[in-house]
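Dig into what follows:

_____
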Amino acid sequence: MKKYDKDFKLKDWRIGGAEELAFLLNKEVIKEPERFINLFEKLNFEIDLNYTIAFLNGLAESIVSNESLFRAIRFLEDSKEKFIQRTIAKIIEKRGAEDTPKQIINLLESYLYSNNEEELIYKDDPLTGYYNSVRGSAMQALLEIFSDNEVKRWDILHFASSSSDIYLLAGCIYELKYMISIDKERALNLFENIVKDNYQLYFTSETVTFLKYIMYKLDDKLISHLQILFKSTDSEIQEETASLIAVAIMTPSICENEHVQQLLNQLFETSLNGSISQRKGMIKTISNNIIDYPSPIALSAFYHLMNDNDKEVLQLFSSFLIYIKTKKVILTSSIQEMIFTLIKSKASEYVGFTFASTLLEYSVKNPEWTLLTINTWLESSYSNESKNYSYLDIDYLIRAVMKIYNFPTSTEDMKKKSMDIFDIIMQSFSKSAQRLLTEWDRR
């Protein structure tokens, strides 16, 4: 370690140096942590940063006791190197030790409450800055240590919310969602204090997530936040906001009064006819929840978006069929009607695989409906014009028809209908039909 440091240069770079040796050191520390604690305690020279980080991370991953870990950290408590400070905070958070000694807590607090401004490497992504900065890492570690101490946690969040450090402000919004169940109004007030003076933090995923957690009852104040978020020009935020609006519209009795309901309906209708990102956010949420929350307004949107002009929006209808199949949903008449309408729409061009595999799954449980649905899909103008067929789509449909035909309880009438559908398939997909017939005969 004394020889191979950052200043040592080899003529042949392929031989390696401090960075490569640090990788090996990390593995050895994990195996024998106490041995290396004793070694580092005796070092009388400054070692390369790579070795120090490897030593600390190795201890964190080892089975060494917290007491020994904290003893090793004290060797480095005077270090001004930011990588070392951040690593110390990270490993303490990782351990989440309830028995963290006061000296170590003081060390973390000195990192957090210092006025040292860090370089804004993540200016456009402040939450990443929260994860990777010294102050942000220290804040995470302290919140973990005080996970059962509400007073301490609120103190830390109040400090962060009044800070000028954009990383801490973003981190505060992120952490506040965990405090909503303790004191909703206090969490909301801190959030509002942050975004009031730091408007750029409004249009972030952390804000959308915070509102999602707090929005179990939608009042005038919360709907105003949704209205502001709705103005975002960022495609990701547009999608997340539209998804949040769809969740609200599908949640029974979420609105505190009629005025709030009217404003929510307006946002919903605007999203429904808004940007591609907003329409994607809408259908993502509706497709995955329409079975359990079939509100009239959501159903209307579901049918409306089936004939959207954007391919990405239409492809998302697959999640509706996947949900039915994976959850083994009972096909009530209303759900059958939803699927039947879907395969007559533009979306049928983009859900072939999930549609066909779902029908195969339900073929013998709902034989008449399955045959009618397959026939309708084959005859629809969209399926005929589609260039998105795959042999798997057709195989699943053929297997569904054959399964119904050969099922022991199938009536003669059902077998006849199956053969009629099979003949239609043969006209367009003779190779697939012949191949599956051959496979069947070999059984």
Observations:
- The first helix runs from residue 18 to 31.
- The mean pLDDT is 87.
- The two ends are 68 Å apart (CA to CA).
- Residues 389 and 435 are 17 Å apart (CA to CA).
